[in-house]
Amino acid sequence: MTKKKAISTEQIHHPYKPPEGWNAVPVPVAKASTVLFKDAADLHDYKPRDGKGYRYGLHGTPTSYTLAARLCTLEGAAHCLLTPSGLAAITLVSMAFLRPGDEVLVPDNAYGQNRYLTESFLPHWGVTHRFYDPLDAEGFKSLLGEKTKLVWLEAAGSITLEFPDLAGLVAACRERGVLTALDNTWGAGVAFQPFELGIDISMQALTKYPSGGADVLMGAVYTRDQALHDKLNWTHEHLGYGVGSNDVELVLRGLPTLELRYRAQDATTRGLAAWMQSRPEVSRVLHPALPGSPGHEHWLQCSSAGAACLFSAVFKPQYGMAEVDAFVDALQLFGIGYSWAGPMSLAVPYDMSRSRSLPLPYEEGVIVRFAIGLEAEADLRADIEQALVALLK
Ligand SMILES: *Cc1c(COP(=O)(O)O)cnc(C)c1O
User: Fold this and answer.
1) Over the stretch 235-266, which tens digit does the pLDDT of each residue have?
2) Does 48 have pLDDT greater than 70?
3) Considering the chain, what percentage of its residues have pLDDT values greater than 90?
């Protein structure tokens, strides 16, 4: 009989294995830094990671591979890499493809953190940039030069929600052999299929719709092309980007209800946006599905199916930041905070004149960006209505 081992040793090396055949709806949560090898030969044997094998927890677990596979189906992609945030997905793309001497083109209405990365970080790596008007595919052509390596696209753009001329922009890039990367957080794989439009790389903040819970930060980068994926994957490994399985579990839990939430929030948002447009305090509402909103005709061309949960109201010029702040503070059901596509509706006031390089495609005015959650439309409308009184005080 073997000598009894210490409690710690026994617990760490316990021989019990649960019976085979566990089968349930949720995906099991596999967590590890160390992945155990059968023997030394197994360790020496190079194992493909990237969805095909296991070597170290950072490079993938059964849980993360399952999420990546499900997301590929959603996005119409062949490959998916998970990152610790949506912003990390953006930096992964830029760091994988940009080298000293290259230029990157970014839409003027890009997600703010992508702007800051491009303006303040990439210059340290010898990468130059220009901001372009996403509504003007003709003018855009003249910006594509010898040094242009990568073009970012975003549909609809952040805060002002202009829907770009995707077909025109992508055609110009393809003609010149320039890589295109789309921030598809807004479309979420529901509104349109980016790879069908000829886009090379797509990314999403899983923080938004795929999670849906306002409780997790994660991102994903998608490709169809193997060589592009290999380059991204190599960069992903070297940067040490990993995701925790508890967070992966939260996103897996969100996916079955993603389309239902998208459609429900979309419907509430369209109702509120149209009503807000009729309000005397507002000079216009920015929402791609509203006729007259910048890029509405491009949205119609590429995505009649979805319009997400965001709209922005441009307040008439007599209402300055102080009045609009008072309106936002008077809202009861809307939280004041960033992010969107969670259960709670949110409102954020913006002075856009400070964060753009090109002229804005609408008359000046303070903006409130509304992110509509899962509350009932009538309750949200009544809340906005009562808060508008604060504008006049
Ligand atoms: C939120 C957001 C991101 C960044 O996602 P995080 O997970 O918050 O880093 C990127 N792009 C768009 C369009 C977003 O709305």
Assistant:
1) 999 999 999 999 999 999 999 999 999 999 99
2) no
3) 91
Ligand 1 midpoint to CA 28 (Å): 27
What are the structure tokens assigned to 341, written together?
């596509």
Tell me, which fold does domain 40-256 have in CATH?
Aspartate Aminotransferase; domain 2 (3.40.640)
Burial of 41 (0-12, 13-18, 19+ CB in 10 A): exposed
CATH 3.40.640.10 positions along the chain are: 40-256
- Our answer on whether the CB atom of 111 is closer than 6 Å to any ligand 1 atom is yes
Domain span(s) for CATH 3.90.1150.10 in the chain: 258-392
- Across all residues in the chain, what is the average pLDDT? 95
Question: Which residue among 182, 185, 312 is best mutated to probe the pocket of ligand 1, counting the most ligand atoms within 8 A of its Cβ?
Answer: 185
Question: What would be the CATH architecture of the domain defined by 258-392?
Answer: Alpha-Beta Complex (3.90)
